[in-house]
Amino acid sequence: MLWSLSASIILIALSAAEPASPFDVGDKSQLFVDHVLVREARNVSFTLVPGRKHPANPLVKADQPWEGWRLEIYGNVIYDDDEKLFKMWYIGEDTEAFPDYATLYATSPDGVHWDKPLVGTVRTPKYEKHNVVAEQALLASVIKDKADADPARRYKMICWLQRDQGYHTMVSPDGLNWTRLSQAPLCRGGDVITGYFDETRGLYVAFPKIGFTVRGHDRRVFWLTTSKDFQTWTEPKLVLTPDLRDDASSLARIEEVRPILDVPDDPNLMRTEFYGIGAYPAESCTLAFVWVFTINNNARYGNQEGPGELQLAVSRDLENWERPFRTPCVPRGKIGEWDCGFFDTQSRALRVGDEVWLYYGGSSYTHGTPCLYRAEGTGRGTKYTGSIGLAIWQLDRFVSVDAPAEGGTLTTAPVVFTGDRLEVNARTKAAGSVVVRLCDAAGKPLEGYAGSDPITGDSLRHVVTWGGKKDVTSLAGKPVVLVFDLKDAELFAFAFRKD
Based on the domain organization, do 243 and 189 belong to the same domain? Predict the structure, then answer.
């Protein structure tokens, strides 16, 4: 009887799983951040492509008295299609006027040059006018929801409320005047949470920080909770934790910032934790910009000391994450520069034309630097600052498959697709090329698709042709294996598209 019950549970679980082979790629762009579709790779390498830091960084600095001595993004940036305006919610640190922290508001016509309109809605006797729009709210993951029939809920926020010490939701008609929506915390946890609306899944997604023991240390790790209606949230599920590989590289990351660390190393305390997560829903997967915190010791004034950096993670289902690269996806600044110490990001990166924009907070101090705990004689606001900058990727170019001049080959798992043409996101050197072969599931070349016309140059959307013809309609819905023959080339993604 026990065996039958267990078998039934297993059968139910198996029947609920979606078929994985042939893998349905539909008409969505397939990235190579993970290796889900990589069946074989010969003489090619997979390379992380760091974001390009905007030359005007930092774009937003603490230059108003009510912002205090430092800024952190600790919020979000959206592009408002209705108003043709970028909008940012971020935090400063004037603890006299706003002792429980506050969320501030800025706007920009181009995402680079930012204004801080004096539209503050929080009253304080210290300042008659300012740009503070939510008191005691941190990590304001703001979403503009044009589908909600209630105009008072046009803007939605997932945040940490400092006085309540809990994760909550808020709503606003204009992004400036906020009212708490949740009556009780979304879930257990402590301080950091980020979230966004996933259009493909029709879900509000949030990543709360809930402590968990990993390899003998109670660590900052991240869980997943979702909601269909922004009111009822699922029980959190543990999804992102540091591992032995992270811990093994801790000392290397610490050495990068050795000149600005405030305390010596303690090998017994040295470890890696995750401080937060920024997300980007790509077409076929979700990318996460993980705020990696490396601890070298306990700080003099409490908490822990150590640097931060941003690393890339990827998931196809929001629950199972891969982190193939353990180096920064946004380069660290040199010692003394504005972003050499600690990092955080907006809650959701933006698609801006054919680019992906990630606003990030950077500092010239580490997590335990005395300037965070006392003002006198610590270089607060002079030697040490916190500001907001921008990192940019060309569309879908987060990881490249690289082949040398002598050539290399990448073969995919069997896939099925919809669409009538194949597009390749690739770049070749002057003498380089990309040739695509389409085969059946057994690897036998399909008639008429044995070898494409060579692709050369740099394009996000090379259209693949065979003898001048691009139509692949006859293969739609059938298992197909793609073989990419690469010479002096970088392959970033492929997609079957509809005209």
Answer: yes
- Residues contacting 365, CB < 8 A, separation 6+: 260, 341, 342, 371, 372, 384, 386
Using only C-alpha atoms, the chain has a radius of gyration, in whole angstroms, of 24
pLDDT score of 37: 98
Structure tokens at 498: 């509809």
Please confirm whether the linkage preceding 125 is cis (ω < 30° from 0). no
Same domain, 439 and 373: no
Residues 321 and 355 in one domain: yes
Is residue 452 over pLDDT 60? yes
Q: Which two tokens stand for residue 38?
A: 């990589």
What pLDDT does residue 9 have?
Answer: 35
Q: Is residue 486 a contact partner of residue 407, using CB atoms and an 8 Å limit?
A: yes
Distance, first Cα to last Cα, the chain: 56
For residue 290, the Cα-to-chain-centroid distance in whole angstroms is 7
Ramachandran quadrant class, 202 (left: phi over 0; alpha: psi -120 to 50; beta: rest): left
The tokens describing 204, both together, are 């509000």
Domains in the chain, number: 2
Among 45, 23, 39, which residue's Cα sits nearest to residue 491? 45
- For residue 282, being part of any structural domain is answered with yes
426-455: b or e for each residue (b if 16 or more CB lie within 10 Å)? Answer: bbbeeebbbbbbbbeeeeeebeebeebbeb
Rounded mean pLDDT of 16-30?
90
Is residue 469 in some structural domain? Answer: yes
> Where a domain ends, among 329, 360, 394?
394
Q: Are residues 26 and 59 in the same domain?
A: no
Name the residue with tokens 């980020």. Answer: 194
pLDDT digits (tens, 9 = 90+) for 168-211: 999 999 999 999 999 999 999 889 999 999 999 999 999 999 99
Q: Does 121 fall in a domain?
A: yes
Q: What is the dihedral of CA 379, 381, 386, 387, to 10 degrees?
A: -150
Q: What is the pLDDT of residues 398-451, one digit of tens each?
A: 999 999 999 999 999 999 999 999 999 999 999 999 999 999 999 999 999 999
Q: Is 378:405 a contact under the CB 8 Å cutoff?
A: no
pLDDT at 7: 36
Averaged pLDDT, 95-101: 91
* pTM of this prediction exceeds 0.70: yes
- Regarding whether 288 and 193 lie in a shared domain, the answer is yes
Q: Are 273 and 245 in contact (CB under 8 A)?
A: no
User: Would residue 7 count as lying in a domain?
Assistant: no
For 5, the enclosing helix (H) or strand (E) is helix 2-16
Q: What is the DSSP string of 309-358?
A: EEEEEEESSSSSEE----S-SSPPPPTTSTTSS-EEE-SB-EEETTEEEE
Q: Are residue 466 and residue 366 in the same domain, yes or no?
A: no
- Containing structural domain, residue 446: 20-47+399-497
pLDDT for the residue 16: 53
